[in-house]
Design goal:
Strand order of the largest sheet: 14-13-12-11-7-10-9-8-15
Number of strands: 15
Radius of gyration: 21 Å
CATH architecture of the largest domain: 3-Layer(aba) Sandwich
Number of domains: 2
CATH class of the largest domain: Alpha Beta
Mean pLDDT: 92
Length: 429
Amino acid sequence: MGEHPDVTRRGFLGTTAAAAAFVAAVGSRAHAQGMDNLRIGLIGCGGRGTGAVRDALAAAAQLKINAKVVALGDMFKDRLDGARQGFQALGAQQELTPERCFVGFDAYKKVIDSDINYVLLATPPGWRPLHLEYAVEKGKHVFFEKPCAVDPVGVRRVLAAAAKASEKKLAVVAGTLYRHSPCYRETVKRVHDGFIGDITAGQVYYNTGFLWSKPRQPEWSDAEYQLRNWYYMTWLSGDFNVEQHVHNLDVMHWIMGGPPVKCTAVGGRQVRTAPEFGHIYDHFVTDYEYENGVHIMSSCRQQGNTTPKNANSYIGTKGRVDPSQMIWGANPWKFDNPQVFAGYVLEHVNAMQSMLAGDPVNEAKQQAESSLIGIMARMSAYTGKEVTWDFAMNKSELDTWPEEWRGKDPSFGPMAEPAVAMPGKTPLV
């Protein structure tokens, strides 16, 4: 699965002196990797993208790496202008001239083609395969937000790009921050060392309330409305069980050591039915089955005024585990400081350390698989059919890219919004 080597909390967080010593020890390789002058480009200037820039700069500061954000790209000028204005407070950590700030459908190419060496991909996930392919082609180290694709065709594109990144020795780090958080890493390591025995069952939850939405404005074309209200369009977000729940599905993938062999899911639109909520669902329940016969139950919802629950729990022959910090049973254990949770920064620390060491981390495969675990559940809920891993990974021809853009450059204008999926009527493709 391409997981990282296990490290301790102290090794991950370290002190400034320890970080400086590490950099000194690999200083000769740092220059070869271009890490003595990290130049960051951001594609997708929303809240997660601007946060990722600050996280990357914090990581670089911890490792005593000279880093600056030097290029921005976004589909919309208002989003780019807002990000650029906010970054002015970074002072010497930014060099954002008008010549390196790009707007439009081709902004990603212009950012990647500029003098950057570390690109942050934070657009809506439907764009991720295209942007990752181009970044790898141009030889850039990559951070990409989760999920990395919204359909099986996109997953296969990411896997192909991942293989090329490995050939080119490029770092590709994903925004699945639990894999980088010391509390999770230490706990999951003990599960893999047998502390709870053989896993016999599990539950995965991401039950939350409403998120934002963007009511349509009269001046927006169909395409602009869908792009600005992207969360509620399956072709852009993958539906919320992929876009949000992928965090805990990734932990399941990690804990179980691989993907399920099949799943059956139910879901629908029970509360979130107004036009501004597009065509995605507001709840899913999925039964994932593994090759050894173990079943994992997954539940996620986004409904207001409901009880929240964001958790993982696994039962084994010798105990049970909350992967974030604790094990009960024959081998009880608790992480010594569960408040230590800096995954957003450690994602970039891990990427930069791997580049410094000349052995760039590549998380694209594990993230592609975790994304597909969510996608196959959505496919099952949308169609009412059982979906196997083999079908989703190797045979499905599902490609959600808009018909209006096939074979041509994307543009603003008319664009049909897909209908709400209906189990028993929507085909399994």
